[in-house]
């Protein structure tokens, strides 16, 4: 069993993005190994324990980067920081342990294609639960491992990233069973042909729109350890201003985009720092989208206030009349759950806890509706879906991945953001502080990409697209269907477990 644990673990480590060696197809070894553990285990308890172990090791290898923000920017000692990714991985591993447990009991009652389909539905359900329970953290979405192969992820335009993950899990299970059941062999061949055939067809024929909207992004590469120091703020503005002027002079963009919290001060206040940005916008006649903390006074008598992680749109006259407040905040980073019980402060270097934004609308500029996603909001399909429902014809993801250094996290984050472009059939402009900044077309191709840890600009003409994907049209119904199938799958597994227990007794 330990060999199967290692097989599944290594598959995940290689399959998901990492700086050493990334081969997307290896990710299939992860669900295949978990299913194999379930079928080989001599009891339900053993299947769960070994599935949990494989899932925990796999997630630890994918989440190891958490140590850096916790220790360096959170100021916690190494002996506290090191267990953090392991603890999160141990929790995420419970989902994978349940998957192996379910396959163990279901495999005693069904086989072949029915078992493969059950595995696919169970995996999709599992990822949806990961994305919703306890604030949600759908970081290890199986389909995102294939994002660097655009042809392999076009199914997300039909069934979404979670649905496509289920297809890959069904394929992996079919590969596992194909030597025993001919029907599984045919299912594996059929799914492979569909994934590849539809993928190449869509990437070759999809109309990416009339690319007439020039956008420039600035990757500032500002030191995360210094950006919040007051004496460094003017230098930050000067750096972004210089890079922006270079891009504007060369490309004449309709808008300049700066990263999340690129301006480490309250842009809404009439300070000399704000006036410098107003002057830049007016003199270059170019609107600027930038991240900045913001506040709203809730009680004038006590000066009580709430904070927001905000994306501002400053127009070419220097006014900031439109903004987007981040809706899905990072636990322990932007707010503190169970604050009275946790013996450390949150990791974001700004005063106080942030509050979630509500009823955000796309930022409208020159006839284009820009649907904003701040930082890890790009890993949640429902937020991009919501922005497109509200009229967004371009998606914009601003982030600050400087927290993670030269680890797997920026690549994994980029892969997850790529899935939002494919799901919604929209161009996505992704601007980050240290990288990886990129323009992603509606079928998930990286049309332009900036090297990490370099201060530079990235400019490209993109298109505003109004047509919606099949996934966008059926998303709500698909979600209901998956929840119904989740209940049905859990019900069947519970029945199988009870029946198997009765047989053994």
The major pleated sheet works out as:
6 strands, mixed
CATH superfamily placement of the largest domain = Carbon-nitrogen hydrolase
User: Count of DSSP E strands?
Assistant: 12
According to CATH, what is the topology of the largest domain? Answer: Nitrilase/N-carbamoyl-D-aminoacid amidohydrolase
* Secondary-structure element order, N to C: HHHHHHHHHEHEHEEEEEHEHEEEEH
Report strand order across the widest sheet.
5-4-3-2-1-12
Mean pLDDT: 90
Q: Which CATH class of the largest domain is shown? A: Alpha Beta
Structural description of this entry:
The protein has 505 residues and is α/β, with parallel strands linked by helices. The protein has helices at 2-15, 29-40, 44-63, 67-73, 78-81, 83-106, 112-130, 156-177, 182-205, 230-251, 272-284, 381-389, 409-424, 470-504, and strands at 213-219, 255-257, 288-299, 304-314, 322-325, 363-365, 368-374, 394-399, 428-432, 438-440, 446-449, 456-462. The chain has 14 helices and 12 strands. The strands form 2 sheets. A 6-stranded mixed sheet has the order 5-4-3-2-1-12, with helices on one face. Helix 10 packs parallel to helix 11. The longest helix is centred in the last third of the chain and has 35 residues, at 470-504.
């Amino acid at each position: 069993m330990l060999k199967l644990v290692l097989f599944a673990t290594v598959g995940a480590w290689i399959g998901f993005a990492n700086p050493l060696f990334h081969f997307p197809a290896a990710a299939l070894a992860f669900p295949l190994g978990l299913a194999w553990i379930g079928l080989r285990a001599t009891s339900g308890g053993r299947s769960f324990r070994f599935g949990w172990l494989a899932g925990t090791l796999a997630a630890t290898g994918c989440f190891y980067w958490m140590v850096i923000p916790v220790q360096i920017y959170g100021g916690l000692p190494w002996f506290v920081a090191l267990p953090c990714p392991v603890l999160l991985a141990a929790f995420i591993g419970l989902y994978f342990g349940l998957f192996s447990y379910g396959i163990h009991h279901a495999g005693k009652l069904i086989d072949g294609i029915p078992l493969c389909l059950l595995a696919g539905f169970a995996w999709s359900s599992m990822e949806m639960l990961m994305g919703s329970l306890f604030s949600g953290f759908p970081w290890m979405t199986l389909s995102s491992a294939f994002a660097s192969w655009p042809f392999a992820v076009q199914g997300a335009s039909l069934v979404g990233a979670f649905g496509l993950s289920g297809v890959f899990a069904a394929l992996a299970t079919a590969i596992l069973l194909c030597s025993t059941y001919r029907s599984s062999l045919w299912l594996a061949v059929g799914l492979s042909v569909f994934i590849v055939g539809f993928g190449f067809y869509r990437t070759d024929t999809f109309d990416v729109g009339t690319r007439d909207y020039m956008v420039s992004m600035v990757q500032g590469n500002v030191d995360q350890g210094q950006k919040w120091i007051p004496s460094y703020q003017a230098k930050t503005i000067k750096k972004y201003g210089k890079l922006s002027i270079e891009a504007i002079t060369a490309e004449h963009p309709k808008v300049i985009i700066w990263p999340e919290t690129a301006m480490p001060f309250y842009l809404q206040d009439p300070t000399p720092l704000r006036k410098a940005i107003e002057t830049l916008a007016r003199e270059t006649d170019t609107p600027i989208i930038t991240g900045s903390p913001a506040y709203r006074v809730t009680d004038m008598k006590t000066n009580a206030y709430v904070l927001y992680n905000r994306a501002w749109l400053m127009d070419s006259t220097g006014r900031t009349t439109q903004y987007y407040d981040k809706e899905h905040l990072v636990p322990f980073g932007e707010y503190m759950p169970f604050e009275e019980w946790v013996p450390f402060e949150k990791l974001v270097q700004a005063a106080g806890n942030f509050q979630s934004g509500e009823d955000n609308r796309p930022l409208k500029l020159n006839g284009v509706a820009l649907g904003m996603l701040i930082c890890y909001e790009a890993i949640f399909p429902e937020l991009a879906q919501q922005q497109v429902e509200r009229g967004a014809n371009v998606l914009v993801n601003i982030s600050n991945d400087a927290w993670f250094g030269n680890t797997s996290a920026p690549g994994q984050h980029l892969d997850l953001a790529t899935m939002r472009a494919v799901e919604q059939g929209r161009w996505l402009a992704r601007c980050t502080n240290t990288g990886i900044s990129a323009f992603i077309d509606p079928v998930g191709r990286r049309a332009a990409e900036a090297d990490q840890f370099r201060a530079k600009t990235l400019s490209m003409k993109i298109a505003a697209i109004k047509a919606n994907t099949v996934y966008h049209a059926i998303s709500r119904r698909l979600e209901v269907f998956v929840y119904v199938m989740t209940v049905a799958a859990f019900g069947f597994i519970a029945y199988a477990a009870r029946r198997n227990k009765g047989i053994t007794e």
